[in-house]
Write a structure and sequence with these properties.
364 residues, 29% helix, disordered C terminus, 11 helices, TIM Barrel
């Protein structure tokens, strides 16, 4: 499939912003395939206030704002999530033309009924929670830092939310590997029984990949062809096929990391594009300042958006993978990111970062 004009226009829409916030990079889990280092703790008040100032700057000129909460485990810094979400809700009230949505990737351990109720009231109504199998299989790979199991607590939280009337959507991301795929029947049977008639719950089957963690060498992988065969096989076991989470088949995929109007803020105030490339210097794009302005390294930022030149579907779908394959791209010429300035220090009005925010004070 080819990238459409509408997709490109949406990616460059300066009145839309997708902000990924990591309130902490610590986690109470130690999943065997995880790539994160957990060495950056809770977002301090000065960075929280900088994020609030950034939102204040942007809100008057936005039509659409989406915040994605990521970690670590974001609910380990629940107070940070609440403070920023409360401020954002107030902005939506102040600017009636601003539509707002929020999602959270969480391990589900702290997402009890009370917490879910609070978060949904603040607009966080979409969640992704991973399971690796039923109890024994799941607990062998998704363990707490103290090596104890996590399945029972997550399952209990899911059932509690199912028994509520909360207006939300939960994607249960079921991981599979060549070793575990034959052990997923008990989990699928339980999902069919407990959640099969509740279309607030989506089931997405995802193969485990090697993302740079210490155990990568021990992870067995499917070929690309077998991945799709395996996913189709697992989907066929769902009692309600409508619940199967799949990518849209009628258009090419543009990763959030490629989009000019998407930005990542880490707990230490570092800016980036990709949640997988947290420790790659190419993903260290600059910092958020205390007044909510951004100091961005323009050339680094440009490298994440190169897929729009051409365009190149492989680069647009995963710019980080393309960087690591050392994909050759055309020289920067008259493209969407060109600038008449060669000084390397440009105001945002003529800069090429694409955020459209009036918040970039200079390249770094």
């Amino acid at each position: 499939m080819k990238v459409t004009f509408a997709q490109v226009a949406d990616s460059f829409d300066a009145q839309s912003l997708y902000l990924i916030i990591l309130p902490t990079e610590r986690c109470n889990f130690r999943c065997t395939y995880c790539y994160e280092r957990f060495d950056v703790g809770r977002m301090p008040p000065r960075i929280v206030n900088a994020v609030l100032a950034f939102l204040e700057r942007r809100a008057p000129n936005l039509r659409r704002l989406e915040i994605g909460w990521f970690g670590g485990e974001p609910l380990l810094a629940k107070s940070v999530v609440l403070k920023i979400s409360e401020h954002t809700s107030a902005l939506v009230t102040r600017y009636p033309g601003l539509t707002y949505a929020a999602n959270m990737t969480t391990n589900g351990y702290f997402l009890d009924r009370s917490t879910a109720d609070t978060l949904v009231k603040l607009g966080i109504n979409s969640y992704q929670i991973s399971l690796d199998g039923f109890q024994e299989v799941h607990d062998s790979t998704r363990r707490k830092a103290d090596s104890t199991g996590t399945f029972d607590r997550i399952w209990s939280n899911l059932l509690s939310i199912r028994n509520s009337d909360l207006n939300l959507r939960i994607t249960i991301r079921v991981h599979f590997t060549p070793d575990s795929i034959t052990q997923l029947d008990p989990l699928i049977a339980a999902l069919n029984e407990k959640f099969g008639v509740d279309e607030r719950f989506c089931i997405y089957f995802k193969d485990v990949g090697r993302l740079g963690g210490p155990n990568d060498d021990s992870i067995k992988l499917f070929s690309d062809e077998r991945v799709e065969e395996s996913r189709s096989y697992l989907i066929s076991k769902l009692a309600n096929p409508v619940q199967a989470g799949v990518l849209e088949a009628n258009e090419a995929y543009i990763c959030y990391a490629s989009k000019p109007n998407s930005l990542l803020i880490r707990p230490n105030g570092q800016l980036g594009k990709c949640t997988v490339a947290l420790y790659d210097e190419r993903n260290n794009l600059g910092t958020i300042n205390s007044d909510g302005s951004l100091s961005i390294h323009q050339e680094k930022l440009r490298s994440w958006m190169r897929g729009f030149i051409g365009p190149s579907e492989p680069e647009l779908s995963c710019p980080f993978s393309a960087m690591n394959r050392e994909v050759s791209v055309p020289p920067l010429r008259k493209d969407p990111f060109s600038s008449s300035s060669s000084s390397g220090h440009r105001s945002h009005e003529t800069a090429d970062c694409g955020l459209g925010c009036g918040s970039c004070v200079h390249s770094v």
